[in-house]
Design brief:
It is built from five helices and four strands; from the N terminus they run βαβααβαβα. The protein is of the alpha/beta class. The longest helix has 16 residues, at 17-32. The two termini are 25 Å apart.
Length: 135
């Protein structure tokens, strides 16, 4: 069975929302490129948030909830501002309460970070570390 990963990155605590989006996109693409199923709310909702600027944090968290509930694991990228992110704190509390795994990844993301997530992927999948990295 393939795992689904929810990729948590800071948004409002970044220098700009545009930079938060570009950094989140880079992280998501890095994981998608190795065949992982990754959903990142910053990447998904940023275009809409540009047109809906006055929405409160609770509005966006409610939109994220179905994706959070469906995900098998939470990947928290330690980008600047992650420790002060209200959204990441809520996502971590939810995953802890559901006894779902939380994995912290460095920023910029390294091959070792990606390998760690690949290693967490189901052993029944044909994804292997050797197929993506020269180990």
């Amino acid at each position: 069975m393939t795992k689904t990963f929810y990729l948590a990155t800071p948004y409002s605590k970044q220098r700009t929302h545009a930079q938060a989006y570009l950094d989140a996109l880079a992280a998501q693409v890095r994981l998608l490129n190795v065949g992982l199923d990754v959903f990142c709310p910053v990447v998904y909702f940023h275009p809409a948030s540009i047109r809906m600027r006055e929405r409160p944090h609770s509005f966006w968290m409610a939109r994220c909830m179905p994706f959070l509930m469906a995900a098998d694991e939470l990947l928290v990228v330690k980008m600047p501002g992650w420790e002060n992110s209200e959204g990441i704190a809520e996502e971590m509390r939810l995953f802890k309460g559901l006894s779902k795994p939380i994995v912290h990844l460095g920023w910029p993301m390294t091959d070792l970070d990606v390998a760690m997530v690949l290693a967490r992927e189901s052993a029944s999948d044909d994804l292997t570390l050797e197929s993506h990295f020269s180990l």
